[in-house]
Amino acid sequence: MFSFNLPATDDEKIQLAGEGEKNFIRLERGYHVKLLTRNPGITIQSIEEAAVRSAREALERLRDALRTGHQLTDFYVQELLGLNADDNKSGDFTPHLEKPILIDRFGNPVQPRTRGQARFISVIKQHDIVLAGGPAGTGKTFLAVAMAVQALEKKLVERIILVRPAVESGESLGFLPGVVSEKIGPYMRPLYDSLSVMLSAEKLKEYWDGNSIEIAPLAYMRGRTLGKSFIILDEAQNTTISQMKMFLTRIGVNSKAVLTGDETQVDLGQNEKSGFAHARKILTGIEGIGQIELSVEDVVRHRLVRDIIKAYEKSGFPA
Protein backbone atom coordinates (compact mmCIF):
# COMPACT_ATOMS: atom_id res chain seq x y z
CA MET A 1 0.00 0.00 0.00
CA PHE A 2 1.38 3.37 -1.05
CA SER A 3 0.47 6.58 0.75
CA PHE A 4 1.23 10.30 0.84
CA ASN A 5 0.23 12.98 3.35
CA LEU A 6 -0.62 16.39 1.90
CA PRO A 7 -0.37 19.28 4.42
CA ALA A 8 -3.69 21.11 4.81
CA THR A 9 -5.40 22.97 7.64
CA ASP A 10 -8.73 21.80 9.04
CA ASP A 11 -10.48 24.73 7.33
CA GLU A 12 -8.79 23.89 4.02
CA LYS A 13 -9.88 20.26 4.32
CA ILE A 14 -13.51 21.33 4.71
CA GLN A 15 -13.36 23.63 1.69
CA LEU A 16 -11.44 21.13 -0.43
CA ALA A 17 -13.93 18.39 0.34
CA GLY A 18 -16.90 20.48 -0.81
CA GLU A 19 -20.55 20.03 0.08
CA GLY A 20 -21.17 16.43 1.12
CA GLU A 21 -17.46 15.76 0.41
CA LYS A 22 -18.36 15.61 -3.27
CA ASN A 23 -14.90 16.77 -4.39
CA PHE A 24 -13.16 14.04 -2.41
CA ILE A 25 -15.61 11.42 -3.69
CA ARG A 26 -14.95 12.55 -7.26
CA LEU A 27 -11.19 12.39 -6.71
CA GLU A 28 -11.32 8.94 -5.08
CA ARG A 29 -13.40 7.48 -7.90
CA GLY A 30 -11.41 9.18 -10.65
CA TYR A 31 -7.96 8.17 -9.40
CA HIS A 32 -8.85 4.94 -7.55
CA VAL A 33 -7.45 6.14 -4.24
CA LYS A 34 -8.64 6.49 -0.66
CA LEU A 35 -8.54 9.83 1.16
CA LEU A 36 -8.20 9.96 4.96
CA THR A 37 -8.68 13.23 6.84
CA ARG A 38 -8.66 12.12 10.48
CA ASN A 39 -4.95 12.86 10.88
CA PRO A 40 -3.27 16.25 10.25
CA GLY A 41 -3.38 16.97 6.55
CA ILE A 42 -4.93 14.66 3.95
CA THR A 43 -3.61 11.14 3.49
CA ILE A 44 -3.85 9.58 0.02
CA GLN A 45 -3.68 5.78 -0.18
CA SER A 46 -3.69 3.26 -3.04
CA ILE A 47 -2.17 -0.05 -4.07
CA GLU A 48 -0.81 1.80 -7.12
CA GLU A 49 2.05 4.26 -6.62
CA ALA A 50 1.16 6.10 -9.86
CA ALA A 51 -2.40 6.59 -8.62
CA VAL A 52 -1.17 8.19 -5.40
CA ARG A 53 1.15 10.48 -7.36
CA SER A 54 -1.58 11.58 -9.81
CA ALA A 55 -4.12 12.13 -7.03
CA ARG A 56 -1.57 14.12 -5.03
CA GLU A 57 -0.88 16.42 -8.01
CA ALA A 58 -4.63 16.96 -8.55
CA LEU A 59 -5.24 17.67 -4.87
CA GLU A 60 -2.29 20.08 -4.80
CA ARG A 61 -3.88 21.98 -7.71
CA LEU A 62 -7.10 22.29 -5.74
CA ARG A 63 -5.27 23.44 -2.63
CA ASP A 64 -3.20 25.98 -4.59
CA ALA A 65 -6.38 27.36 -6.19
CA LEU A 66 -7.94 27.72 -2.76
CA ARG A 67 -4.86 29.47 -1.39
CA THR A 68 -4.79 31.96 -4.27
CA GLY A 69 -8.35 33.03 -3.47
CA HIS A 70 -10.37 30.97 -5.94
CA GLN A 71 -13.82 29.68 -5.21
CA LEU A 72 -13.94 25.93 -5.83
CA THR A 73 -16.94 25.90 -8.16
CA ASP A 74 -17.82 22.69 -9.98
CA PHE A 75 -16.18 24.09 -13.10
CA TYR A 76 -12.87 24.76 -11.37
CA VAL A 77 -12.87 21.42 -9.56
CA GLN A 78 -13.50 19.53 -12.80
CA GLU A 79 -10.74 21.42 -14.59
CA LEU A 80 -8.20 21.13 -11.79
CA LEU A 81 -8.85 17.45 -11.16
CA GLY A 82 -8.62 16.75 -14.88
CA LEU A 83 -11.49 14.26 -14.75
CA ASN A 84 -14.00 15.85 -17.13
CA ALA A 85 -13.92 13.71 -20.25
CA ASP A 86 -16.00 16.12 -22.34
CA ASP A 87 -13.80 19.09 -21.43
CA ASN A 88 -10.62 17.20 -22.17
CA LYS A 89 -11.65 16.40 -25.75
CA SER A 90 -10.49 19.74 -27.10
CA GLY A 91 -7.27 19.80 -25.11
CA ASP A 92 -7.02 23.56 -25.67
CA PHE A 93 -7.68 24.90 -22.21
CA THR A 94 -5.61 24.65 -19.06
CA PRO A 95 -6.94 26.34 -15.92
CA HIS A 96 -4.76 29.16 -14.66
CA LEU A 97 -4.13 29.52 -10.95
CA GLU A 98 -4.00 33.30 -11.14
CA LYS A 99 -5.70 35.34 -8.48
CA PRO A 100 -9.42 36.01 -9.06
CA ILE A 101 -10.20 39.07 -11.14
CA LEU A 102 -11.07 40.90 -7.92
CA ILE A 103 -12.74 40.46 -4.56
CA ASP A 104 -16.21 42.00 -4.52
CA ARG A 105 -17.55 44.23 -1.75
CA PHE A 106 -19.03 41.19 0.00
CA GLY A 107 -15.63 39.48 0.18
CA ASN A 108 -16.34 36.95 -2.58
CA PRO A 109 -13.87 36.23 -5.40
CA VAL A 110 -15.03 37.23 -8.87
CA GLN A 111 -13.76 34.58 -11.28
CA PRO A 112 -14.85 32.49 -14.28
CA ARG A 113 -17.35 29.80 -13.39
CA THR A 114 -17.47 27.95 -16.72
CA ARG A 115 -15.04 27.03 -19.48
CA GLY A 116 -16.60 29.60 -21.80
CA GLN A 117 -16.24 32.35 -19.21
CA ALA A 118 -12.58 31.44 -18.72
CA ARG A 119 -12.00 31.77 -22.46
CA PHE A 120 -13.86 35.10 -22.42
CA ILE A 121 -11.45 36.50 -19.82
CA SER A 122 -8.49 35.20 -21.82
CA VAL A 123 -9.76 36.89 -25.01
CA ILE A 124 -10.20 40.20 -23.18
CA LYS A 125 -6.61 40.03 -21.93
CA GLN A 126 -5.25 39.32 -25.41
CA HIS A 127 -7.18 41.83 -27.53
CA ASP A 128 -7.93 45.56 -27.57
CA ILE A 129 -11.45 45.07 -28.93
CA VAL A 130 -13.63 42.09 -28.04
CA LEU A 131 -17.05 41.17 -29.41
CA ALA A 132 -18.78 38.69 -27.11
CA GLY A 133 -22.09 37.08 -28.00
CA GLY A 134 -24.27 34.68 -26.07
CA PRO A 135 -27.60 34.25 -24.27
CA ALA A 136 -28.72 36.08 -21.15
CA GLY A 137 -27.21 34.91 -17.90
CA THR A 138 -23.78 33.92 -19.22
CA GLY A 139 -22.00 36.66 -17.27
CA LYS A 140 -20.83 38.65 -20.30
CA THR A 141 -21.49 42.09 -18.82
CA PHE A 142 -20.64 41.16 -15.24
CA LEU A 143 -17.20 39.76 -16.11
CA ALA A 144 -16.46 42.62 -18.51
CA VAL A 145 -17.24 45.12 -15.74
CA ALA A 146 -15.01 43.14 -13.35
CA MET A 147 -12.12 43.31 -15.84
CA ALA A 148 -12.73 47.05 -16.25
CA VAL A 149 -12.67 47.66 -12.48
CA GLN A 150 -9.48 45.60 -12.19
CA ALA A 151 -7.84 47.69 -14.95
CA LEU A 152 -8.89 50.92 -13.24
CA GLU A 153 -7.61 49.87 -9.82
CA LYS A 154 -4.31 48.73 -11.34
CA LYS A 155 -4.12 52.14 -13.10
CA LEU A 156 -3.93 50.47 -16.51
CA VAL A 157 -6.65 52.89 -17.62
CA GLU A 158 -7.80 56.26 -16.31
CA ARG A 159 -11.54 55.66 -16.55
CA ILE A 160 -14.30 53.18 -17.21
CA ILE A 161 -17.01 54.09 -19.70
CA LEU A 162 -20.13 51.93 -19.69
CA VAL A 163 -22.40 52.42 -22.68
CA ARG A 164 -25.83 51.15 -23.69
CA PRO A 165 -28.11 51.92 -26.64
CA ALA A 166 -31.37 53.39 -25.33
CA VAL A 167 -33.51 50.81 -27.08
CA GLU A 168 -35.88 48.46 -25.29
CA SER A 169 -38.66 46.14 -26.35
CA GLY A 170 -41.96 48.02 -26.70
CA GLU A 171 -40.74 51.26 -25.12
CA SER A 172 -39.19 54.53 -26.15
CA LEU A 173 -37.50 57.30 -24.19
CA GLY A 174 -40.14 59.79 -25.21
CA PHE A 175 -42.85 57.95 -23.31
CA LEU A 176 -40.92 57.70 -20.06
CA PRO A 177 -41.44 60.38 -17.37
CA GLY A 178 -38.83 62.94 -16.29
CA VAL A 179 -35.89 64.78 -17.77
CA VAL A 180 -33.28 63.04 -19.95
CA SER A 181 -31.14 61.88 -16.99
CA GLU A 182 -34.23 60.33 -15.39
CA LYS A 183 -35.37 58.77 -18.65
CA ILE A 184 -32.09 56.92 -19.24
CA GLY A 185 -31.85 55.66 -15.65
CA PRO A 186 -33.74 52.39 -16.23
CA TYR A 187 -31.58 51.57 -19.26
CA MET A 188 -28.35 52.08 -17.37
CA ARG A 189 -29.41 50.26 -14.19
CA PRO A 190 -27.97 46.82 -15.08
CA LEU A 191 -24.52 48.37 -15.51
CA TYR A 192 -24.79 50.24 -12.22
CA ASP A 193 -25.90 47.04 -10.48
CA SER A 194 -22.75 45.23 -11.66
CA LEU A 195 -20.57 48.07 -10.43
CA SER A 196 -22.29 48.13 -7.05
CA VAL A 197 -21.34 44.48 -6.52
CA MET A 198 -17.68 45.11 -7.37
CA LEU A 199 -17.14 48.30 -5.35
CA SER A 200 -18.16 49.63 -1.97
CA ALA A 201 -20.53 52.59 -1.94
CA GLU A 202 -17.69 54.87 -0.81
CA LYS A 203 -15.29 53.71 -3.53
CA LEU A 204 -17.95 53.91 -6.20
CA LYS A 205 -18.81 57.48 -5.15
CA GLU A 206 -15.12 58.40 -5.19
CA TYR A 207 -14.72 57.11 -8.75
CA TRP A 208 -18.00 58.70 -9.78
CA ASP A 209 -17.15 62.13 -8.37
CA GLY A 210 -13.70 61.96 -9.94
CA ASN A 211 -15.14 61.12 -13.37
CA SER A 212 -13.25 57.82 -13.34
CA ILE A 213 -16.49 55.98 -14.07
CA GLU A 214 -19.08 57.13 -16.55
CA ILE A 215 -22.35 55.49 -17.61
CA ALA A 216 -23.95 56.94 -20.71
CA PRO A 217 -26.30 56.16 -23.60
CA LEU A 218 -24.66 55.33 -26.92
CA ALA A 219 -25.92 58.58 -28.48
CA TYR A 220 -23.66 60.54 -26.10
CA MET A 221 -20.53 58.98 -27.64
CA ARG A 222 -20.73 60.82 -30.95
CA GLY A 223 -17.81 63.19 -31.55
CA ARG A 224 -15.73 61.91 -28.61
CA THR A 225 -12.33 60.23 -28.56
CA LEU A 226 -12.08 57.72 -25.74
CA GLY A 227 -8.41 57.36 -24.79
CA LYS A 228 -6.87 55.50 -21.82
CA SER A 229 -10.27 53.98 -21.11
CA PHE A 230 -11.90 50.61 -20.61
CA ILE A 231 -15.14 50.87 -22.60
CA ILE A 232 -18.01 48.40 -22.42
CA LEU A 233 -20.89 48.52 -24.89
CA ASP A 234 -23.69 46.43 -23.38
CA GLU A 235 -26.73 45.16 -25.33
CA ALA A 236 -24.73 45.79 -28.50
CA GLN A 237 -27.23 43.81 -30.58
CA ASN A 238 -29.52 46.87 -30.36
CA THR A 239 -27.16 49.16 -32.25
CA THR A 240 -27.69 49.98 -35.90
CA ILE A 241 -24.82 49.56 -38.35
CA SER A 242 -24.14 53.31 -38.40
CA GLN A 243 -24.20 53.47 -34.58
CA MET A 244 -21.77 50.57 -34.35
CA LYS A 245 -19.38 52.22 -36.78
CA MET A 246 -19.62 55.45 -34.79
CA PHE A 247 -18.86 53.64 -31.53
CA LEU A 248 -15.93 51.61 -32.83
CA THR A 249 -14.28 54.70 -34.29
CA ARG A 250 -14.41 56.50 -30.90
CA ILE A 251 -11.78 54.20 -29.38
CA GLY A 252 -8.53 56.04 -28.68
CA VAL A 253 -4.95 55.18 -27.77
CA ASN A 254 -4.32 52.85 -24.79
CA SER A 255 -7.98 51.87 -24.60
CA LYS A 256 -9.76 48.54 -24.51
CA ALA A 257 -13.34 47.92 -25.61
CA VAL A 258 -15.64 44.98 -24.90
CA LEU A 259 -18.94 44.72 -26.76
CA THR A 260 -21.52 42.27 -25.45
CA GLY A 261 -24.76 41.21 -27.07
CA ASP A 262 -27.31 38.51 -27.73
CA GLU A 263 -28.36 38.31 -31.38
CA THR A 264 -31.56 36.47 -30.42
CA GLN A 265 -32.81 39.54 -28.53
CA VAL A 266 -32.68 42.35 -31.08
CA ASP A 267 -35.23 45.10 -30.31
CA LEU A 268 -34.59 47.27 -33.37
CA GLY A 269 -37.27 48.14 -35.91
CA GLN A 270 -38.24 45.53 -38.46
CA ASN A 271 -36.20 47.15 -41.23
CA GLU A 272 -33.12 47.82 -39.10
CA LYS A 273 -30.14 45.45 -39.17
CA SER A 274 -28.13 44.82 -36.02
CA GLY A 275 -24.79 46.60 -36.05
CA PHE A 276 -23.42 43.96 -33.68
CA ALA A 277 -24.19 41.08 -36.03
CA HIS A 278 -22.82 43.07 -38.96
CA ALA A 279 -19.59 43.96 -37.13
CA ARG A 280 -18.99 40.36 -36.10
CA LYS A 281 -19.06 39.38 -39.77
CA ILE A 282 -16.89 42.11 -41.28
CA LEU A 283 -14.30 42.38 -38.47
CA THR A 284 -13.34 38.71 -38.46
CA GLY A 285 -9.61 38.17 -38.88
CA ILE A 286 -8.47 41.69 -37.97
CA GLU A 287 -5.46 41.53 -35.64
CA GLY A 288 -6.25 42.97 -32.21
CA ILE A 289 -9.97 42.21 -32.45
CA GLY A 290 -11.14 39.09 -30.65
CA GLN A 291 -14.50 37.36 -30.83
CA ILE A 292 -16.13 34.76 -28.60
CA GLU A 293 -19.53 33.11 -28.38
CA LEU A 294 -20.77 31.96 -25.00
CA SER A 295 -23.43 29.24 -24.96
CA VAL A 296 -26.34 28.07 -22.85
CA GLU A 297 -23.83 25.87 -21.00
CA ASP A 298 -22.25 29.07 -19.64
CA VAL A 299 -25.47 30.33 -18.02
CA VAL A 300 -24.73 30.96 -14.33
CA ARG A 301 -28.06 32.33 -13.11
CA HIS A 302 -30.68 30.11 -11.49
CA ARG A 303 -30.33 26.54 -12.80
CA LEU A 304 -33.79 26.84 -14.42
CA VAL A 305 -32.66 29.70 -16.68
CA ARG A 306 -30.57 27.28 -18.73
CA ASP A 307 -33.54 24.93 -19.12
CA ILE A 308 -35.84 27.82 -20.04
CA ILE A 309 -33.46 28.99 -22.80
CA LYS A 310 -33.20 25.46 -24.18
CA ALA A 311 -37.00 25.09 -24.14
CA TYR A 312 -37.46 28.29 -26.15
CA GLU A 313 -34.74 27.25 -28.61
CA LYS A 314 -36.44 23.87 -29.05
CA SER A 315 -39.77 25.59 -29.73
CA GLY A 316 -38.19 27.62 -32.51
CA PHE A 317 -38.73 30.92 -30.68
CA PRO A 318 -35.49 32.78 -29.70
CA ALA A 319 -35.15 33.01 -25.90
**Can you tell me the overall shape?**
elongated
The overall strand count is 11
Average predicted confidence as pLDDT? 84
Which blocks of ≥5 consecutive residues have pLDDT under 50?
85-94
Question: How would you explain this protein's 3D organization?
Answer:
The protein has helices at residues 10-17, 22-31, 49-67, 74-81, 85-88, 115-126, 140-153, 180-198, 201-209, 241-248, 275-282, 303-315, and strands spanning 2-6, 34-36, 42-46, 102-103, 109-110, 129-133, 159-164, 213-217, 229-233, 256-261, 289-293. With 319 residues, it is of the alpha/beta class. The strands form 3 sheets. It has a 6-stranded parallel beta sheet with strand order 8-7-9-10-6-11. A 3-stranded antiparallel beta sheet has the order 1-3-2, covered by helices on one side. Strand 9, helix 10 (241-248) and strand 10 (256-261) form a beta-alpha-beta unit. Helix 7 (140-153) packs across helix 8 (180-198). It starts with a strand and ends with a helix.
